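Researcher: Next sequence.
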Amino acid sequence: MRRKWVKNWLARRDLFGHMTLLKELNENEPNDLKNYLRMSKPDFDRLLDLLRPHITKQDTVMRQAIPAEERLIATLRFLATGRSYEDLKFSTGISAQTLGSIIPETCKAIYEILQDTYMK
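Model: Next structure:
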């Protein structure tokens, strides 16, 4: 039996992953969106604007890069819930192995960008 490069359900992340839920919450349930992100949408957007140049990856011939917004949301959910990468893969639609790269990279970027302003 030949192994697939990516599982079919992970390849369809845009259909059922957390981004679909977030679009719905943003349009109809701003308080639930704030609870999910653990910050207001304007604060999230500001943080994303600061981090985007540091966490954005390039698409390749083989696959599309996971957008900075999804990287940040997956990281925030990990930090807020303490869930394992294996568990988070089901709500994010991102493999546990990829989350194992994304989350530390994003945490490092958060620290580097915010340390001078918020940490002493």
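Model: The chain is about 70% helix and 0% strand. The two ends are 54 Å apart (CA to CA).
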